[in-house]
Amino acid sequence: MCGIVGAVSHRNIVDVLVEGLRRLEYRGYDSCGFAVINGADDKHPIERARTTARVAELAAQGKDFYGTLGIAHTRWATHGKPDTQNAHPHISNNLIAVVHNGIIENYETLRTELKAAGYVFASETDTEVIAHLVHQQYIAHDQKDLAASVRAVLPRLHGAYAIGVISQDSPEVLVGARVGSPLVVALGDQENFLASDALALAGRAHAMMYLEEGDVAILNADGVQVVDQSGKIVQRESKSMPTQSEAVDLGPYQHYMQKEIFEQPRAIGDTLANIAAFGPELFGANPEEWKSFDQILILACGTSYYSACVAKYWLEDIAGIPTQVEIASEYRYRNTISNPKTLIVVVSQSGETADTLAALRHAKSLGHRFTLAICNVASSAMVRETQWHFLTKAGTEIGVASTKAFTTQLLALYLLAVSIAKRADRISVEKEKELLRELRHLPKALHAVLALEPQIMAWSEAFSKCENALFLGRGLHYPIALEGALKLKEISYIHAEAYPAGELKHGPLALVTDKMPVVTIAPNDALLEKLKSNMQEVKARGGKLYVFADQDTEIVSSEGISVIRLPEHYGNLSPILHVVPLQLLAYHTACARGTDVDKPRNLAKSVTVE
What we know:
Blueprint: E1 3-9, H1 14-23, E2 31-37, E3 46-51, H2 55-62, E4 69-75, E5 90-92, E6 96-104, H3 107-116, H4 128-139, H5 146-153, E7 159-167, E8 170-179, E9 184-187, E10 191-195, E11 207-210, E12 216-220, E13 223-227, E14 233-234, E15 239-240, H6 256-262, H7 264-272, H8 287-290, E16 295-300, H9 302-319, E17 323-327, H10 328-331, E18 342-348, H11 354-365, E19 370-375, H12 381-385, E20 388-391, H13 404-423, H14 429-450, H15 453-463, E21 468-473, H16 478-492, E22 495-500, E23 517-522, H17 528-540, E24 544-549, E25 561-565, H18 574-593
Helix pairs in contact: 1-2, 4-5, 7-13, 7-14, 9-13, 9-16, 14-18, 15-18, 16-18
């Protein structure tokens, strides 16, 4: 969710902090700020800038600042409204400054305790208790040690968090700590950095390391020390730092979301690269391990949950294995009947989704040892904490509304279904070759779907004038209808709901009028005739149908029905093709309404809090 950047150097690092925040804007935020200390100043006071505007406004303020040590933050409001007083960094008694991602669950108790001790709060946030607690520890000892003070405070904080801390008394020291939220240390030449995402520092450093659970990092310009939760100095694996990512360049596109929609053929092709056969090896398992589970439970949130819903159809139909799908944020809060022979599959773009991580840990605590992550980030907590994993190759996704991450998740789950089917001898050698040919044709098929953009733009003008919309699908395509409705509401702010088309007469039909567009996904499959009957129910009530149909469906445009035809029917892989026009419809409708497509209100890209 929020973004953290920190730096310590022998030079002015204000531009590093601001540029880092700019690169993290895609995560979503409603305020931002930085605090710096000039180590060359004998008094070295903490100086701070904050705004509820965009990072560009913060950059304008930053021209008057100089600092060799600093922390910066983009905030997505949880505790306290989005205003300047609640923006990070938070400062305690002009001595300690803190930035924080995550949530401190026991902040009210700590706040009451600190007020009784004489601390005055300037914000409504849970973060400010961290600043005051560190200050309390810091002044309690004659030999002031910022890192020791931070370490002493951590056991008192309940929840998930990553923090960056600086002190006026220590103008050469930056301290970072993580429990539950990701934090990266980046190593430069006579300067070192912290960030919640390596993208913030790409090109700034030559190496990086990911902090592990409970780690505290002590940075100065000339070195880094990491202390684990037991208090022992440890070495964390160092990796090469990525160079400036092409993902931050828009190229010819108007928004990142549009760019990422059009990157899907490449993302699918990259994910399929070097796959010559189906099997456990794709997921890091061996054939004997692969025989050990007899049912599947998929845990995910949001768009990833809808990919899992499609996967249920594939896994039960193609692989013949019983499959359940649960919203991760609900799973861990109810009593479940665990079967130790269940494969737990977690799906997440970032691999740091707090609810999904918590659900994974809960499943493991119940004794589930077969775990698999489908994820887009190799270094994520989810990949590290599962037995097996499959990495999608979507690349960096900056638009808050997921597009290429979703289609590559679908692809990964399809590979899982066919690989399990192969385990059970449900596909022949000839069939395997045929399925591989179909997969390799997907990028070309996606290019053909993307060519429909001008027709979809024409529809978007009508949609932009509506405040409500219905989406209908059946079978494999019902979750795709759900995803289409989610995309529309996320970025255009139009209220949209999706239903299995057969459920129309059980309630939703009451909503249908000539002012309610009804988007229908109409592939040429076994449910087509049933779907046509459902469409007639809408038409008879004066509803306006917007139909994405396959060739040979015999659905044609007429009074009350507008049809866009996809170039070909793609069988079990059809959901990967049919979701793309829904993404384009949402995108162009949002453009027509003038919304902030890449950074929709109230939403964040990486949901690292529950």
